[in-house]
Amino acid sequence: MSASLLAQARWAAAALAFAIVTVATPAFAETITVTIENLSFKPAEVQAKVGDTVVWVNKDVLDHTATARDKSFDIVQPAKKSISQTLTKAGSFDYYCRYHPNMTGRLVVEP
Length: 111
Hints:
The structure is a single chain. The chain is an alpha+beta fold. The chain has one helix spanning about 5-25; strands at about 30-35, 40, 45-50, 55-60, 65-70, 75, 80-85, 90-95, 105-110. The protein is about 20% helix and about 40% strand. It has a five-stranded mixed sheet, with no helix packed on it. Strand 5 and strand 6 form a beta hairpin. The longest helix has 22 residues, at about 5-25. The relative contact order is 0.20.
């Protein structure tokens, strides 16, 4: 096989491999931050997709939770700490803090 044909074959194989990887790669997941400050979740409503990550940042000096009313998640957030949660299920989830029930929010997750 000539050097020219060998180079063309390598280029074609590389182009095919790139095309396969490009097609098979899923869209990038987002990272969404929910800040807990002054006894409230900010933002109070979050729009996300399955595969996204929510970073819960507790800026208060008190511990909090993000507890789904349907019991699908219950995240304990120590004071001045952050916790990450990767979203695996679509739906609309109302949540609250078990320690401070007046703290509420909603997480809407699309497929």
